[in-house]
Amino acid sequence: MNKQNVTIYDVARESGVSMATVSRVVNGTSNVRPSTKKKVMDVIEKLNYRPNEVARGLASKKTTTVGVIIPDVTNNYFASLARGIDDIAAMYKYNIILANSDGKEKKELKVINTLLSKQVDGIIFMGNEITPAIRKSFKDANVPIVLAGSVDSKKTVPSVNINYKNAIENVTSELINHHNKKIAFVSGDLRHSINADHRLKGYCDALSKHDIQYNQNYVFETNESYKDGYEISQNIVDQKISAAVVTDDSLAAGILNWMTDHNISVPDDFEIITSNDTQITEMTRPKMSSITQPLYDIGAVAMRLLTKIMNGDIEDKYKENDVLLQYGVINRESTRK
Amino acid sequence: MNKQNVTIYDVARESGVSMATVSRVVNGTSNVRPSTKKKVMDVIEKLNYRPNEVARGLASKKTTTVGVIIPDVTNNYFASLARGIDDIAAMYKYNIILANSDGKEKKELKVINTLLSKQVDGIIFMGNEITPAIRKSFKDANVPIVLAGSVDSKKTVPSVNINYKNAIENVTSELINHHNKKIAFVSGDLRHSINADHRLKGYCDALSKHDIQYNQNYVFETNESYKDGYEISQNIVDQKISAAVVTDDSLAAGILNWMTDHNISVPDDFEIITSNDTQITEMTRPKMSSITQPLYDIGAVAMRLLTKIMNGDIEDKYKENDVLLQYGVINRESTRK
DNA sequence: ATGAAAGCGCTAACAG
DNA sequence: CTGTTAGCGCTTTCAT
């Protein structure tokens, strides 16, 4: 019942060596004679000594913890990335401080600051948009930062993503090939680069390649919620639109269920293809066709990249560092063959 | 471009006071003459000084960070609790170190240790089971611990939950009232106290109150996955079971969809009621009836309780501290009226 | 109201 | 291979 925490000094005294030696055996750095090493280890065991990482952090200027900024853990897309991040972090002996931001700039800025004051060794940022203020605080931070599943329109920060533009272009083309003339593009906030510069661009490119006129009425801006999907569906149908490319699975589920609830058969009368291939694509009836993204891997690779940068293993960290992972498309039941 | 971080010493010098005074204005503790306070604040602003929380943690023995152990962030049930935890933590100026355990004792033990070595001020634990080893490490930890959405059969740790037994008993009774004679109980690992001692108990109590014979063949032990639900359904149907009480929403969705896929009408031919009221209960067709739990609140209340204990605001922290939040039942479309 | 000084527990030269 | 000695940046008595 050692209430008082035992320190390195206690171990040193008890085993008749200096604290430097204890530090050495604990860190496995530099050589220590096997016999004294064993002696120290025994005392550590006996006293149940556990190094104080805070003291270590102060002395070494490394905390072995990284900050992870996430819009909302409750969102399966981001949660999947987070899982990949944490697993790789654990693999490299890092811990993560997880902070929800709701994708709000103000919260993001605040949390970046507290993370920095906690001396994290690096930050993984997930967010809808890298605003100028965010970009500035990234620049001022003296720790490396990597984006996961998030794009920086200015490409000023290393990131890992898929090629959203190509992916959306692919599925839009497929829908066009199914003879759909009017195809909706249903996304989140169009002020966000990921939606405007990448996904909408892909949609537009597909249209123009097939000589289809772009119609602004067919693009729907939402909050990417199930409810939003359900609510905009009437409007979609009223315009005689026959297919939709959707950027979020919950959102897509809302549209799908509205159709079903209104006796519009999917995929016979209406086709839907969504973007994130989260678990819910399998749970709806019909199951949803989707772009497939290696969600876990995006997080994992981002964390791996961060460890490399923190380690100085990367020649030029300002160099091009936008890794694009492979995406795919899975045709389930919300699209025709 | 202040590459070198500015320290408390720098602002002390720059503003012509001692570091003790700077510390005082930063912490707002004890009195400082308004004029000198302003002077210091200005310098802090000018130098863009940000207190080093690690140094502060070492000196004060408080890190204002708490550890959160979670089986899997990717699981919406736990993610919802985590969101409640983080929000309240932020409200009280704490950060959370989030660690996934997969509910595996070995990982849990390991992570408890690293959390403790990082000097967290407290821990919120979510897990399926408090094993003797876990209980021991909790006892040895010299920081408070609170369970969220998790039960300790020995009631040795403060916790916040709902009354799982009563909830399951309620819904089972309802199914019995719908004239179902054979009702399945589909749960996760029955070695876990929450399933065996609480939920199964509730199921049994409902049966016995209605003079229905308990039949072991009607209880299904699973991994609580969608896939498991889908796979056990044939067995359920083969036994002429006409309703199921399920402990997890994905699991329930699996059963529901299997029924639908096999032309068994829910709820006409088969009734299902699930337990967690996560988002997917609204996404399936028919929508699933469910026990409703205040998921976010369970996390939030757990965190609030932890802050109180950390603060010493609770008289006797060894006293009965099992808070039970209100649950409800919502009848959607997978049960008859 | 403010300053001086002693740590907090550990790492990291620097000696030897 | 091992010990000595400075700090790391801040909080916290104890004086004044």
Automatic annotation (TrEMBL), chains A, B:
Q: What UniProt keywords apply to this chain's record, in alphabetical order?
A: Activator, DNA-binding, Repressor, Transcription, Transcription regulation
Q: Enumerate the NCBIfam families for this protein.
A: ccpA (TIGR01481)
> What is the organism lineage in this UniProt record?
Bacteria, Bacillati, Bacillota, Bacilli, Lactobacillales
Q: Which organism is it from?
A: Apilactobacillus ozensis DSM 23829 = JCM 17196
**Which SMART domains is this protein grouped with?**
HTH_LACI
- What superkingdom heads the lineage? Bacteria
Q: What molecular function does GO assign, one term?
A: transcription cis-regulatory region binding
- The residues covered by the HTH lacI-type domain are 6-60
Pfam families recorded: LacI, Peripla_BP_1
Is 4Fe-4S a UniProt keyword of this protein? no
- Describe the function of this protein: Global transcriptional regulator of carbon catabolite repression (CCR) and carbon catabolite activation (CCA), which ensures optimal energy usage under diverse conditions.
Designated name of the protein: Catabolite control protein A
Question: PANTHER family annotated for this entry?
Answer: ARABINOSE METABOLISM TRANSCRIPTIONAL REPRESSOR, LACI-RELATED TRANSCRIPTIONAL REPRESSOR
Q: Which InterPro entries match?
A: CcpA, Cro/C1-type_HTH, HTH_LacI, Lambda_DNA-bd_dom_sf, Peripla_BP/Lac1_sug-bd_dom, Peripla_BP_I
Q: Which residues form the HTH cro/C1-type domain?
A: 2-50
